[in-house]
Amino acid sequence: MWRYACDAAIHWGDEWPALLRSLLPPGPGLLIHYPGLPAADAAALPAGTPAYDRVEANPTLEQVQRAVDAALPLRPRWIVAVGGGSVLDTAKIVRLALACRCPSVEALLRAVPGPGRERPLLVAAPTTHGTGAELTAWSTVWDVGGGRKLSLSHPANVPDIAAYCPPLTAGLPLPASLSSTLDALAHALEALWNRGANPVSDEMAMAAVRGIAADLERLDEPVPLEVRAGLLRASMFAGLAFAATRTAAAHSISYPLTLRLGVPHGIACAMTLPALWRINAPHMAAKAGRLRRSLDGEDPAAMLERLRRFAATRVPFTLSAYGARPRDAGDLARASFTKGRMDNNLVELDEDAVRGILAEIMG
Ligand SMILES: [Fe+2]
User: Fold this and answer.
1) How do residues 146-181 score in pLDDT, each as one tens digit?
2) What average pLDDT score do residues 2-17 get?
3) How far is the CA of 254 from the centre of ligand 1 (A)?
4) Ligand 1 centroid vs 236 CA: distance in angstroms?
5) What is the tens place of the pLDDT at every residue in 243-271?
6) pTM over cut 0.90
């Protein structure tokens, strides 16, 4: 038995002001955006719309609380979030806090009270081609002091509208472009080797892998807009896949790499994909064969090695490059078991197996 549902409506437009005009209801609103949003893109919102741009990468509890505190008195009827995963995840919590009339993020993280009937419409417009946060029901909050990644997950946390506009991704620097694309690749592959996979998520995941395998190596300055559009479409398909399955071992192993070593999220997830493919592929032979055919016959392992080689010439791609030493592998392995992620993996991994995977990417 299986089911597939995604509660976000998908809108795609090549022109931001026109796309926005088609989406926004009347009444007061709020723009939550990354600090570098071009003034012309902000100006596409109705005149006088308040804006909040103090979301940082990998936002902490305190930073998300500040965004909620700023939004509550404004009582917006709609929120437009423009940014990467951190901005979109923060905006999702802001909307949930308004909908539940719950001003405390900490309380929301413990339990989400039933959202009221009047909740602001949330339009999530990604400026990266990776996170899929515009489609998913969860938000990540980082507890840096406690060394933990927290997740707020609730059906009412899915944006109402995922608004895709390729020109919004045009200013994304190359390292972030690579990292976010590799994040989407991890979402897609982890949806394939996932215990919660179903035929719909499989098809979405394969479409995503195919798009990324074709276009990732075209990420070089200046990146043509058609490459951005193709990668944005691939990240959308990956988002639709893992919105149903959640992620698995690659993400679970990535969290301590990001928290302790500062490895960018997408790179931390992608480093382990070759090893995890080797481990999982024999347990999904039919699916692996279909993926190979969808890659026009290229062996998925060879594809992963091709993309790894390309990425490694542009961004640090070993753990030692981020300051890890071989003796850290044990601690990192112990910290890599996030419930609800690691246990989604098709093949059960123990600490020894994870230590072996980390040793392989130590460099
Ligand atoms: Fe991710």
Assistant:
1) 778 889 999 999 999 999 999 999 999 999 999 999
2) 96
3) 9
4) 13
5) 999 999 999 999 999 999 999 999 999 99
6) yes
Which string of b and e fits 111-147 if b means at least 16 CB within 10 Å?
ebeebeeebbbbbbbbbbbbbbbbbbbbbbbbeeeee
Asked: is 173-360 a CATH 1.20.1090.10 domain? The reply is yes
| Single-letter code of the amino acid located at 209 | V
Q: Domain-by-domain residue ranges, the chain?
A: 9-167, 173-360
Q: CATH assignment of 9-167?
A: 3.40.50.1970
C-alpha 186 to ligand 1 mean position (Å)? 7
